[in-house]
Amino acid sequence: SWKVLRSQYSQAQEKQTRDLGVKQKQESNFAAKDWCEDADDWGACDGAEPPACASLELLGLKEAVSSEVECASQLQQLHLSEPAHGPGPQDTHPAAASEDMVMATAGSPPVFQPFYINVVDEEDCTGFLDTDHADKLLKEYQQRECVDLEQMMSESSAGEDINEKYEKSEVKSWDHTFHKFMKRISVCPEQILRYSWAGQPLFITCPPANLEQAIPACSNCGSSRVFEFQLMPMLVSMLQSDSDLSVEFGTVLVYTCERSCWPTNHQTPLEEFIFVQEDPDQRLFK
């Protein structure tokens, strides 16, 4: 089964976090200088603790207070290529630490290898249209299904009754949808994701007639959900994992809250609506 979770971070909150960190750093620097100026009052010449130690203690206190701020800041600066380094266990028995690591590994869900996505506007690709790959796929599809999609499309565009033509050629409605799908992605066959906030999804097969009514309202604020993005078939061949995890789909459509609502100080992702269409060829194996 599929689930899609939405999590977001406010830009205003990020700026507030940065400003707070700068303010705390300035205050700590001022405090450190103040300790040094009053060193004589603390008996530095009488063998008492050097003022530098007091300054370090104060800085340590500052670090403890701002640990939450630093954590949020570091999360915003993570890079996929960086390994997750962190402090090792302290004052922990080796056997206990090893047991914890085994339990953590065993309980970790399988994940796919992450990678960066290059974003390109679809309009930018229209001047470099290369339909060779799409034409090859369409030819193979028509030979396998014994249909003439080009003729069907030209007849339908001339105003002839589509349902009648489907009956005469024994072609199902999803053939028409699949042809539109292949023609659209031929502009960029390598695409793995399509993003269009509140736009129109690109179906690979004919969707249910009541799909719009079946999309539930946002569980948090009650607003309607709108289409946001979809995963494309090319992504299937790129998904890699350390386990034997595999996934097959035609396209995966994600609908999210039209208000992008997010409760104040909320830390748990919100579940959104997902609609999966299988690969049309999968029906041949059933």
UniProtKB/TrEMBL annotation:
User: Which lineage do the record's taxonomy fields give for this organism?
Assistant: Eukaryota, Metazoa, Chordata, Craniata, Vertebrata
Extract the InterPro entries matched here.
Answer: PDCD2-like_regulator (IPR052815), PDCD2_C (IPR007320)
Where the record annotates domain Programmed cell death protein 2 C-terminal, the positions are: 175-278
* Domain of life according to the entry: Eukaryota
List, as start-end ranges, the regions of compositional bias called Basic and acidic residues: 15-24
Q: What is this protein called?
A: PDD2L protein
Q: Where is this region: Disordered?
A: 1-24
UniProt record, GO biological process? apoptotic process
Q: Origin organism of this chain? A: Cnemophilus loriae
| Range of residues in the leader sequence | none
The GO cellular component terms are: cytoplasm
One Pfam family it belongs to: PDCD2_C
